[in-house]
Amino acid sequence: MTCVKYIPQAKMNFTRKSTVGWSIENILLDFTGGVSNYLQMVVQSIDQGSWVNFYGNIGKTLLSLVTIFFDLIFMFQHYVLYPPKKPSKCLEESNEPLIDPSHESI
């Protein structure tokens, strides 16, 4: 299910050459959760003196790997390949009047 969710978004970002329209914050939270999952498994393995946490629950391990993989792709797309564009000069606030006062009609 995770691949079904992430592959279309990665393809759409690539096709549009943009990540506008979706929240990078959710990806950062997802990445934090995946990394925290691995840290938990490492701490448990050290405590138990066995690495069965990694190969004993292969579903959890693979799901975390896939999630972290796609999160890294999305972060690379958002921050490196297609960073947010800076606003153009015409959109900046200006104190100049829109109409030239010397051309006012009475």
TrEMBL record:
Coiled coil: none annotated. The keyword Transmembrane applies. SMART domains: CTNS. InterPro entries: LC_transporter (IPR005282), PQ-loop_rpt (IPR006603). It holds the Pfam family PQ-loop. Keywords: Membrane, Repeat, Transmembrane, Transmembrane helix, Transport. It is a multi-pass membrane protein. The keyword Transmembrane applies. It is found in: Endomembrane system. The chain crosses the membrane at residues 62-82. PANTHER family: CYSTINOSIN. This is Cystinosin homolog. It comes from Brassica cretica.
